[in-house]
């Protein structure tokens, strides 16, 4: 239905930044172990100095918004986002073509005001604004699945699903591999579904599954609104596994379920990153969208936000997605369908694996849902050229070349178990939960433990990991070489996407963590 013209909505204007070429060079310098600037990260203030919009951009946009009747505008430290309140009528006058409707949907009957039609910026502004947020994007939905329980014969020496002790056994962590409690090390997970976690679920999870390692049973800080009502499995999963893999490390949760109806939660999180000078070193995010469903202006700008984070030494881990190579039809022809932010060259993307025998702690094979492939937007970053070339020249069963862009950013970078997890939600233990939103917090937690060692030795945190990861050619990781992920169900590829093989592949990246070996390769400067 058409939205009431007097209804207030909040829109975020992404202002054109400066010096992005310099920012990109700086990211390379601080993230490349062979560079003299390695680990010498920028502060938020340094980043602001560099990217802040020009005085002309700032004054043009402000004048224009004031004239349109915008109120209550807030900026961020880097001055490159401006969030203002307008009525629906003012917003429609300001952005020609936009037409706002009220949508009601989702499990909590959320009311969202959005414009189904594209908008155009006035000519005078087009060169000063990258995009306007709060117009089109809907709250994302979860792709987590609860799978049917595998059938089992005999029960000696078996585990019935993945728990923290199974993860700690598989990835070779000892009871000593926990945070020291003496550093200012911290980690965070961000969730954008209409869900929240409950402290009581976390406490119950740790009571059931956290008995054999030191841990924290509550979250140090919640940023954003915590809704009320039922906890979501995804929110519970993220927090419970980040805090049991990165055990005894202070943990923040970015939560967005009780948000005001017009704000896009993912954008809110990016604004927070640009406005807080002291942030956790590792962020794990289980959120993704089809690359082709996003405007190029939006994707490029979000990628710049990840670049800003990398310059500051933040490690951003994104789930690779739960649809394998994906599939869509472009003018009658099938192609694989990459996911973003998984395809950003400035984040570390985590795929998924299963145990070869679902009831034993054995070696891992591909989890067929593990998202992976090649970006249609971002060119291949130099750090991965050799690895990708090796895969493309040696993989015995590549899909037809018309299905993917072999010169695009390839992902994932790494992987971890994503199949058959136990989660406590609303005080009930739930088995067989699967998805790369399980593997991502596990990998993130282990990186936090490595940061702990680095901080205690006087080294900077790991920061943007990919250049180092690819230079070390998967050292410290278990190579996953068996299995393929899913894709288009047609004659030509028959549901099969890429297959894993020795070394890097676009299904499980370099592989899964062998903690003591990974610590050894990543602890030194």
UniProtKB/TrEMBL annotation:
Q: Which reaction does it catalyse?
A: Release of an N-terminal tripeptide from a polypeptide, but also has endopeptidase activity
Cofactor(s) demanded = Ca(2+)
Listed name of the protein: Tripeptidyl-peptidase 1
> Where found, per UniProt?
Lysosome
Residue positions of the active site: 234, 238, 437
What GO cellular component entries does it have? lysosome
Q: Which UniProt keywords apply?
A: Autocatalytic cleavage, Calcium, Disulfide bond, Glycoprotein, Hydrolase, Lysosome, Metal-binding, Protease, Serine protease, Signal, Zymogen
Q: Matching CDD domains, A to Z?
A: Peptidases_S53, Pro-peptidase_S53
How is the subunit organization of this protein annotated in UniProt?
A: Monomer. Interacts with CLN5. Interacts with CLN3.
Specify the species: Equus caballus (Horse)
Provide the function of this protein: Lysosomal serine protease with tripeptidyl-peptidase I activity. May act as a non-specific lysosomal peptidase which generates tripeptides from the breakdown products produced by lysosomal proteinases. Requires substrates with an unsubstituted N-terminus.
GN (gene name): TPP1
A biological process term (GO) from this entry: proteolysis
**Residues the record lists as binding Ca(2+):** 479-480, 503, 505
What EC number(s) is this enzyme filed under? 3.4.14.9
Instruction: Tell me where in this chain the Peptidase S53 domain is found.
Output: 161-525
Pfam families (alphabetical): Peptidase_S8, Pro-kuma_activ
What does the UniProt cofactor note say? Binds 1 Ca(2+) ion per subunit.
Q: Which GO terms describe its molecular function?
A: metal ion binding; serine-type endopeptidase activity; tripeptidyl-peptidase activity
């Amino acid at each position: 239905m058409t939205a009431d013209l007097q209804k207030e909505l909040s829109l975020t204007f992404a202002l054109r930044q400066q010096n992005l070429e310099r920012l990109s060079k700086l990211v390379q310098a601080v993230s490349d172990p062979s560079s003299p600037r390695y680990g010498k990260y920028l502060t938020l203030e340094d980043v602001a100095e560099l990217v802040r919009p020009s005085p002309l951009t700032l004054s043009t946009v402000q004048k224009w918004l004031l004239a349109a009747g915008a109120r209550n505008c807030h900026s961020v430290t880097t001055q490159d986002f401006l969030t203002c309140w307008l009525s629906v009528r003012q917003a429609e006058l300001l952005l020609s073509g936009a037409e706002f409707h009220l949508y009601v949907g989702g499990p909590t009957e959320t009311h969202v005001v959005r414009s189904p039609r594209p908008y155009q910026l006035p000519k005078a502004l087009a060169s000063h604004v990258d995009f306007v947020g709060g117009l089109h994007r809907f709250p994302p939905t979860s792709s987590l699945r609860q799978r049917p329980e595998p059938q089992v014969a005999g029960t000696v020496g078996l585990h019935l699903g993945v728990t923290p002790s199974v993860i700690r056994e598989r990835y070779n962590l000892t009871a000593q591999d926990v945070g020291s409690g003496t550093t200012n090390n911290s980690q965070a997970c961000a969730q954008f579904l209409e869900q929240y976690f409950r402290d009581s679920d976390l406490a119950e999870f740790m009571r059931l599954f956290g008995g054999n390692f030191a841990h924290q049973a509550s979250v140090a800080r919640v940023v954003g609104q915590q809704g009320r009502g039922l906890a979501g499995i995804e929110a519970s999963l993220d927090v419970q596994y980040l805090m049991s893999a990165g055990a005894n490390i202070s943990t923040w949760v970015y939560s967005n379920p009780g948000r005001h109806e017009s704000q896009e939660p993912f954008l809110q999180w990016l604004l927070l990153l640009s406005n807080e000078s002291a942030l956790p070193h590792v962020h794990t995010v289980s959120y993704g969208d089809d690359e082709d469903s996003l405007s190029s202006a939006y994707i490029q700008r979000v990628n710049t936000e990840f670049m800003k984070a990398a310059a500051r030494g933040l490690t951003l881990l994104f789930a690779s997605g739960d649809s394998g190579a994906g599939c869509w039809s472009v003018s009658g022809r099938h192609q694989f369908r990459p996911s973003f932010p998984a395809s950003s060259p400035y984040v570390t993307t985590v795929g998924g694996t299963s145990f070869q025998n679902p009831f034993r702690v054995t070696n891992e094979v591909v989890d067929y849902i593990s998202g992976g492939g090649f970006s249609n937007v971002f060119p291949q970053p130099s750090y991965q050229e050799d690895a990708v070339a090796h895969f493309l020249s040696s993989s015995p069963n590549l899909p037809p070349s018309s299905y993917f862009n072999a010169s695009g950013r390839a992902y994932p970078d790494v992987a971890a178990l994503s199949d058959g997890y136990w989660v406590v939600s609303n005080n009930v233990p739930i088995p067989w939960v699967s998805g790369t939103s399980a593997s991502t917090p596990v990998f993130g937690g282990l990186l936090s433990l490595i940061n702990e060692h680095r901080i205690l030795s006087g080294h900077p945190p790991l920061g943007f990991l990919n250049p180092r990861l690819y230079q070390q050619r998967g050292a410290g990781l278990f190579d996953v070489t068996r299995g393929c992920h899913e894709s288009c169900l047609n004659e030509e590829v028959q549901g099969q996407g890429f297959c894993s093989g020795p070394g890097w592949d676009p299904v499980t990246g370099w592989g899964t963590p062998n903690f003591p070996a990974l610590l050894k390769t990543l602890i030194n400067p």
